[in-house]
Specification:
Layout (H helix, E strand, L loop, with lengths): L3 H43 L4 H22 L12 H8 L2 H18 L5 H30 L11
């Protein structure tokens, strides 16, 4: 027998799923946008890439995460702590800034040099700029939430 509460639980399940997906994917979404538009910047400033340059671009984009993960996890030996979801949600809601900083870094590198290495360095600089700025956004989110009385905002897992 169906009740109004059952219908509400379907709706709340959908909302929970949506909240989980959006919260989990925010950083990835911002980075995807960044590497797409940074590729466009490289193409405008450097010309249409050949296949080796596309592979170099992909390697440069990946290396930004790899380098920072290696450093921050002490050579991949320590876990990477995570803020609670409310802190991450507020922090990643500011992704516009981190995308623009990353795009600015890619533009600076790509517009300043004409060399094969630009195809690796521009996405690397974009990724590092993005990750550093997103970290500042998360730190700001933590401070805002703590100031508003959220006692769990500064806790991290790991």
């Amino acid at each position: 027998m169906s009740t109004g509460e059952d219908a509400g639980s379907v709706g709340s399940t959908l909302v929970r799923g949506l909240r989980s997906t959006v919260g989990r994917e925010s950083t990835t979404f911002g980075f995807s946008i960044l590497v797409t538009v940074a590729f466009g910047v490289c193409q405008v400033t450097q010309g249409s890439p050949d296949l080796p340059r596309i592979f170099l671009y992909a390697a440069g984009a990946v290396m930004s995460f790899t380098l920072l993960e290696g450093i921050l996890s002490s050579g991949f030996r320590r876990p990477m702590p995570q803020h609670p979801t409310q802190t991450l949600a507020l922090g990643t809601s500011m992704n516009l800034l981190s995308v623009l900083v990353g795009l600015g870094a890619a533009t600076l590198v790509s517009a300043s040099f004409t060399h094969l290495a630009v195809w690796g360095l521009a996405p690397f600089a974009a990724g590092v700029g993005y990750l550093l700025t997103e970290s500042l956004e998360d730190a700001l989110a933590e401070r805002i939430l703590v100031a508003s009385g959220d006692t769990e905002a500064e806790e991290v897992s790991g």
